[in-house]
Amino acid sequence: MKYEYNGPLSGVSLKGHGDVMLAPGATVELPEGHLYTNRLIKRGWLTPAIDPSTLRQAQGERANGSSGRTGVQGDLEITAETGGKPTKTTRNKETE
Q1: What is d(CA 63, CA 3) in angstroms, rounded to the nearest whole number?
Q2: Are residues 78 and 84 in contact, defined by beta-carbon separation less than 8 angstroms?
Q3: pLDDT tens-digit series, residues 25-73
């Protein structure tokens, strides 16, 4: 699976998956469900990469009057306005 990495400059060799260079802001391919991948996600250094076709679809919906929201996970909201990058939001549960 593709992820966006936002941690310190690093590299890793995963048995059966090869070597991966981890640079801040880079999109990297790491095995989904792997112990190391899960560790980076828990530290907040990996977020799922946004598929450009999903972003184009969201921008098209926004032009048609929708909110432009492409996904909400916990307190992270991914919108076309932020270029597909997760942003922390505060949501009011009474309005949902």
Answers
A1: 27
A2: yes
A3: 999 999 999 999 999 999 999 999 987 766 666 566 665 555 545 555 5
